[in-house]
Amino acid sequence: MKSSTVIAGCMSWGQWGAKFNTQEYLSQIKKTLETGVYTFDHADIYGHYTTEEEFGAALKLDPSLRSKMQIITKCGICMLTPNRPLHQIKSYNTSKTHILSSVEQSLTNFHTDYIDLLLIHRPDPLMNPHEIAEAFSILKKAGKVKHFGVSNFTTTQFSMLHNLFPLEVNQIELSIVHTSPFYNGVTDQCIEKNITPQAWSPMGAGKIHLDAEDEKSRRIVSMANILGEKYNASFYQILISWLMKHPSGVIPVLGTTKIERIKASLDAHSIEMTNEEWHMLLRASNGFDVP
Ligand SMILES: NC(=O)c1ccc[n+]([C@@H]2O[C@H](COP(=O)([O-])OP(=O)(O)OC[C@H]3O[C@@H](n4cnc5c(N)ncnc54)[C@H](OP(=O)(O)O)[C@@H]3O)[C@@H](O)[C@H]2O)c1
Question: Which CATH number is 7-167's, of 3.40.1160.10, 3.30.470.30, 1.25.40.10, 3.20.20.100?
């Protein structure tokens, strides 16, 4: 799937953040599309199972928007919430029945007849890859889902399913403060198998910012500001470009609800920091040089 250069994460658009009303959703969607970002990241659970439906209510007001965007959504986590009174605890469900019914609900919520990309949200200790592959095949054949992937999967979990059904994406936590995918084989596997790593929480879930007080964030912001001077860029753009420099072709899933930040992140693509500068930021994060 050819997504936009960055993806608009919608986790914080509704009850888990900005609490947009329908008109505000509509405006946010239109302004995001105007920036050139056309891929929107959802999950069934966002806003305790309400954000998909709220986003869909905005799409219903202007159905022409659907063909201008890609919708990603996820399934497999069962949350404990009054909106799902049958759930007794938080758990995972990656059964064929659950995947199929979750997708039907997402299609209804978005007022659409297809999802662009479906991800299994978290690896489930009870997952049966044969059953997931069967569900994916049914959805693909019916045209209800165009592309498939997973999220937060280790390399072996990924291979187990990929060997039965072709996956295109592993959406993982990746940022200057969460670099383990560079070392645990996940981004290596993405390169090897031509899989796109989508990076969630690319700004460390908002923990790295100009006013951050912890030592590590201060080191990162200070280094990013030095590079920002050189490249005439904000520290935010430098941190996005740091992710984009990785040869695996990282696509950041932005959590910001600020249109100007979405716009700015696109310019990060043209910053060409050197290998040494990339390592200077890594050192700022680690607090020590590479061995
Ligand atoms: N697959 C998964 O398991 C998973 C897990 C978590 C999230 N996700 C996806 O990833 C998306 C992004 O996650 P995230 O929200 O944790 O991402 P993030 O981009 O790391 O953090 C977003 C937060 O950072 C703040 N922020 C961003 N840039 C800033 C800047 N320059 N200065 C100050 N604050 C800044 C934002 O505030 P403003 O809104 O004010 O800019 C927002 O509060 C979610 O929307 C969701 O779609 C996926």
Answer: 3.20.20.100
